[in-house]
Amino acid sequence: MKSGIFKNASALYLVQIANYIIPLITLPFLTRALGTESYGKFAVIQSILMYGIVMTDYGFQFSATRKIAAMLETGQNVSEIYSNVTTARCLLAITATVLILIVMEFLPYLNLTPDMILAIFLFVLCNALTPLWLFQGFQKMVIVSIIVLISRIMGAVITIGFVKNTTDINIAIWAQSLGMMLPVGFAIWQSIGLVGRWRLPTLSGVKSELTEGWAIFQTAIFSTILTNSGIIILGSVAGAHVAGGYAAVERIAKGVSSMFVPITQTIYPRVSAAFARNQSDGIMILRKFGVLIFGLSILSSIGLVLMVPFDVVGRIFGQEYNEFSSVLFILAPWVVFGILNNLIGIQYLTNIGQQKWYASAFTISGIFAFTLFFLFTPYLSYSAIALGLTLGEGLLTVLLIAKVYSIFKHRRGGD
Known about the structure:
Layout: H1 2-57, H2 60-73, H3 79-105, H4 114-129, H5 132-138, H6 142-162, H7 169-195, H8 203-238, H9 240-258, H10 261-277, H11 279-307, H12 312-317, H13 327-348, H14 355-380, H15 382-414
Helix pairs in contact: 1-3, 1-4, 1-6, 1-8, 1-9, 1-10, 2-5, 2-8, 2-10, 3-4, 3-8, 4-7, 6-7, 8-9, 8-14, 8-15, 9-11, 9-13, 10-11, 10-13, 11-13, 13-15, 14-15
């Protein structure tokens, strides 16, 4: 079991390197070539694109993964789930693209061109067609992770090689889309090898998968509001220059936070299987992994704080970005809160049937953070975005801890 966890964690780290670390490597080239103004526009487009990613991922990376893991335990065929989920994701990709374009119509300063619109659609569609959720359920991430890594490297090469000045935003967007396109065919071929022949999806099946993933989607969409809407609001209120400066610094904190995703995604099927046996086993294995993960998040948070006095931001992105580095002090606790919320909310509460409650708590914290963004950005500028992120995650932590206390108190009372 330990070797399996290590193998899948390593594979997921390759995916995470592809999705977050390689873009961080290319980020200094983008910030210096585009400048704060043009990079701010690019960052706003990226933030809006994240809504497309979240819509196509929906809640399937947990709901469908959990179902597949459980069905494999009993030897059931999962091809019907695969066809229904894939169909749902494609429909969501089309819907997401339309909504993204509508939103961007209200942001004319982005100056969208037809080729940029095509790149946006392909980006979202390719994400929908790449079934990483399926490979998580089968715990077979190695080959696909390598392909995704190579594709992101190609995207990075395009970015570094062709983005040279402030007018090359469209090239930067196409670099991301082309990076998403390469692994799709191979991933589909591998998935068919796992699930067998393609089965025609059914309307009831697609609706069922959407229903089961709804609670997780709620948390994901409000998480996106929590982590991405701030830059969109900042660009509209304070201008692209401020949005660009803040976005570059924020990417450092998000990059640190993203390094924990492979770990939490890898242990989730194990934790789910343990909770399926009995809650005592689930709590035991979650505690075992949780203590280590939480400790690492604290160390990572300290590392973010230490970046400020050593002028890390200015050295990496250029001195014009250094004025925004102080937000790392505010974002450091956000990393810790986010990891703790995953351990309590996703790993524990969703595995004991509390998905709806978790979704409601996430909705409350998301609305709270969005309200802070909206009310205080005109007065505090980019600091309001960082404060909203951290306080929103902090509120969610308080709500989740209160819920866990209530659950254990009720059980002790029942005993």
